[in-house]
Amino acid sequence: MRIYDLIKQARFRSVSVVGLAKNAGKTVTLNSIIKQSAGDAVLLGLSSIGYDGEKLDVLSRLAKPRIAVREGTLLATAADTILRATAGLEILAATDFITALGEVLLVRAREAGYVEVAGPDSLAEMRQCIEIMHNRGCELVLVDGALDRIGSAAPTITEATIVATGAVAGGSLRKILTRTLHVVALFSLPIATEKSDLSRRQNLVHITADGVSDLPFKSALGHGAAVVEHASSATPYKLFVPGALTDSLVSELTHKPKICKNTTLISPDPTHIFCSPEVWQKFLSLGGRAEVLQNVKVLAVTVNPTSPVGRSYAPKEFAAHLAEALAPLPVYDLFLDEDGPIGYQ
Question: Which residue of 95, 124, 161, 221 has the fewest C-beta atoms within 10 A of its own C-beta?
Fold first, then answer.
């Protein structure tokens, strides 16, 4: 089954493509979905958190694939990108969302061609752009998480996410597997039962069988040791962290194994968690648990076995390793086969 067929079967109306690093294959994935959807004459919408679709990578100056759109596609993109499109674009409306490349405009492709896309900088503005495109008749809106911005996978932005990984995601096959599995696991964390009670909280919150109490911290950053002091090694508890959840707090917990085994960390969603795989796995191995108020539906993973600056891998073997590690999640190497996921022995 093709990636587009997965989207169609689930009836998703918005999907993001996010990468674990630059050159992981996001644009190839996006182009594949656009091409596959052509047979259904689906009206597509397209935008990007950040800047994507350019001929050369703006940082590495290496050639990269461009985004190919067909006639009728709607785009939410900054004004400066319109002049560089080979597709004829018609301006439909302004959004008042300002970026470094000008105001984000709603445009329609009058003909097929290549485009550069630079959408709004904030998730709130992106959410509005998606809504605008839906109101204009788009049946599916694709969001490119440009420049490794996995924030576009936030569950309040798109209904599902495709993760692009590859040789650029780590210096060895083991590191690539570890990082990819880590991100997919974070995206798939269980939903906290206290969701309705915590969604509007601004401080860290300590939850025990005796009740709920706000801690005197709006962020765990720089307060890891102080936060852990509020915990007890005798009874289970949950700790809601409304902002970034980083290695500093989790490391403090792993230094106190008796407290760690009684700890359940709660984050607003997986894109707030910035822990390294090593620290996170140590936390889990000591009995720690984690939940989120909203998780991310990972639809599939795409793999790119080549790297423009580092080690590349034999395509079939590389894809098979990822497919085995991520099973039953479908894994695609779109450079090899766009029609179905990779199998493994």
Answer: 124
Extents of the domains making up the chain? 3-188+297-332, 195-292
Residues of the chain with confidence (pLDDT) below 50: 53, 55-56, 58-63, 146-148, 345
Torsion of Cα atoms, 100 then 101 then 102 then 106, to 10°:
-130
CB 128 within 8 A of CB 101: no
List the structure tokens of 63: 């050639």
Query: How far is Cα 181 from Cα 81, in angstroms, rounded to an integer?
Result: 35
DSSP structure string for 192-244: PTTHHHHTT--S-EEEETTEEEE-S-S--TT-HHHHHHT--SSS-EEEE--S-
Kind plus residue range of the DSSP H or E element containing 19: strand 14-19
Classified by CATH at the fold level, domain 3-188+297-332 comes out as Rossmann fold (3.40.50)
Alpha-carbon gap, residue 116 to 344, rounded angstroms: 36
pLDDT tens per residue across span 178-200: 999 999 999 999 999 887 778 88
Report the topology of domain 195-292. Answer: Cytidine Deaminase; domain 2 (3.40.140)
Tokens 């106190």 belong to residue: 256
Gap between the Cα atoms of 183 and 163, Å rounded? 9
Task: Report whether 161 contacts 304 (CB < 8 A).
Answer: no
Helix intervals (H) in the chain: 3-10, 26-36, 79-82, 123-135, 173-187, 195-198, 224-229, 247-254, 257-260, 277-285, 315-326
What is the spatial distance between Cα 231 and Cα 25, in angstroms, rounded to a whole number?
Answer: 43
Model pTM? 0.90
**pLDDT tens readout for residues 198-221:** 888 999 999 998 889 999 999 999
pLDDT at position 62: 45
Q: Nearest Cα to 338, choosing from 37, 81, 86, 113?
A: 37
